[in-house]
Amino acid sequence: MTKKITFLLIFFLFFSSKIIASPKQKIINNLNETNNLSFEFKQKISKKSEQGKCQIEYPKLIYCLYYNEDKKEIISNGRTLVIKNNKFNETYVYPLKKTPLFYILDKDYILNEIKNLEPEMAKPDKFKFLISDDLNKIKIFFHSKTFNLLGWETTDIYQNKVLFEISNIKKNQKINRGKFKLPNLN
Fold this sequence. Notes:
alpha+beta; 186 residues
């Protein structure tokens, strides 16, 4: 009988801690369980707005295709970030670590940072964490009910505010890793 009571007590404590976990802990748990994301996005830089779809695979891989007439692509293989304008066959290459995406695409970095921060309500349905160091200030947004990543806000190299909003999120889907292969840089 004592074993049954002990088992029920442990069972209750384990599941009640899952139910009453703080929003921050639920975000951490959700992010820990996420290996990759597929989603649609809306990006606002100053007054310009663009849309498209992306796939992220942790750590540091991203592929985005913009729905604009340039059919712009953004690709990271974990070390290099390429922005390709397919309409004009222009390719721009950056070291990933010189961009805010270096931090945003590093799930372990985000987890370590938000463990030491408290979320703020950005809107009724969004939590916000402000991660900053000497070079970057990154606001990362999570949904207040699903605890999914909802986007981020950074500043680009031209000092423009960049707001990247995520929707229609799918987690842990099978992803073609070939998408993260950089195009020829000739």
